[in-house]
Structures are given as C-alpha cells and as structure tokens.
Design a protein that fits this description.
Number of helices: 5
Largest sheet: 9 strands, mixed
Structural class: alpha/beta
Strand order of the largest sheet: 3-1-2-4-5-6-7-8-9
Helix content: 10-25%
Low-confidence stretches: none
Oligomer: single chain
Distance between the termini: 22 Å
Strand content: 15-25%
Number of strands: 9
Length: 208
C-alpha cells in the first residue's frame, strides 16, 4: 500500500479532540475539494506492506490511531490494516464519504465527511453510507460560508443519522469560527463546533 506519512500528534478534530494519537496518512484521493489542506497526499508516499506500517506505528507507544488521507478506502490493503490494528489500538478512520464504508471493521470509529457545495464535491457524496453509520461514528460537514451552513441545516433536517455526533467545521482562515458559532447558537442546533486545533497549536503545516 502507498503511505504518504506516519506521525504522532494531538488529535485536532472530532469528539476525540486533544488526545495524543498516531496518524497514518494514505496516498491518493478521488476528490479535489477547493479548500483541501493535504494536496501533497494526492501522490506523495512510499510503498509499505501492512506489517511494515504496523512496525512503524509501534515506535510511538500511543493508544489511538487515525487512518486518514487523501481517501484511505481507495486502497484495498487498508481493510487488512484496520483488521490488524483493532487488535491492539483504538482505531479511527477519516473518510471523505464518497466511497462505501460497508466493509469497514465495526470496531473502527468512522468520522465521515458529507461534502457541502463550497467544496465543489457535494455531487460525489455516497449517501448510502448514512445507513451504514454506527451510533459511535461521527459525521462532519466542512463549512465555507453561509450558503454551506444553510445547505447543511437542510441536509440534517431531511436525513436521519445513527451517528450521534454531527460536526460543523469552519474552513480554516476562510470562515470565522466565531461567526459559525453564532449561527449555531441562534438556530439552537444540536451539533458540535469542530475546530482544527492542531492548526492553532502548530500552524498550518504537515506532519503535526
């Protein structure tokens, strides 16, 4: 499988925000979101076996692992990797929501994007995934502007989620988190504001 990078950092998003975690970033993505902050993952990386990846993560001595991308579900070996990792770690999968999640090990916590119009990729949402989500999974909407916000409100009003956590994430340095917070408060939404705190801690750079 092609791996872009493996590193340890503080989880910057989701309900697990603030927890030290190992990140395995797979190479390749089938989407081209306008605000993508990991374009280097489209092609950069090295070929590693599942066993080699597991050997690399052992050096960090942490309990949690996130598998991300790019889009990690584009590589078939990721399923073997997840099946192995759940034996020893709490595993999180971050996926862009355009690929079926029905083969993901049920022990894996899924954080799934639903793309908004501001991404330019909302036509690629694989909506059958909504019915595959578990109670412990999370749904993330990345919001660039008021249009995205209104679209997302309508989406969550017209769809039923098994996942209990719904994340509203402002695009970093494009939508002011204070403004998004006010919209959420004014509309009394039962959602979680999802800031990328690793960027506030370390800056907008890779490997952190």
């Amino acid at each position: 499988m092609k791996i872009c990078e493996i590193f340890a950092s503080i989880q910057g998003e989701s309900s697990l925000v603030g927890i030290p975690m190992i990140f395995i970033r797979l190479t390749g993505c089938n989407l081209r979101c306008r605000y993508c902050d990991t374009q280097y993952s489209y092609s950069e990386g090295e070929e590693l076996s599942v066993d080699q990846v597991i050997d690399k993560v052992k050096q960090f001595k942490l309990k949690y692992i996130e598998i991300t991308g790019g889009e990690p579900l584009l590589q078939n070996e990721v399923y073997e990797l997840m099946n192995n990792l759940v034996k020893s770690y709490d595993v999180v999968l971050e996926t862009n929501g355009s690929v079926s999640i029905n083969k993901v090990n049920p022990q894996v916590k899924i954080v799934m994007d639903i793309k908004t119009p501001g991404s330019g990729m909302n036509h690629r949402n694989y909506l059958k995934n909504i019915n595959c989500l578990k109670k412990t999974d999370e749904v993330k909407f990345v919001i660039a502007d008021r249009e995205d916000y209104e679209w997302t409100k309508e989406f969550i009003n017209t769809h039923t989620f098994n996942a209990e956590e719904i994340l509203f994430s402002p695009v970093f340095e494009i939508l002011d988190p204070a403004e998004l917070s006010q919209w959420i408060i004014q509309d009394s939404l039962s959602v979680r504001l999802n800031l990328q705190i690793h960027k506030y801690i370390f800056g907008d750079k890779r490997g952190v």
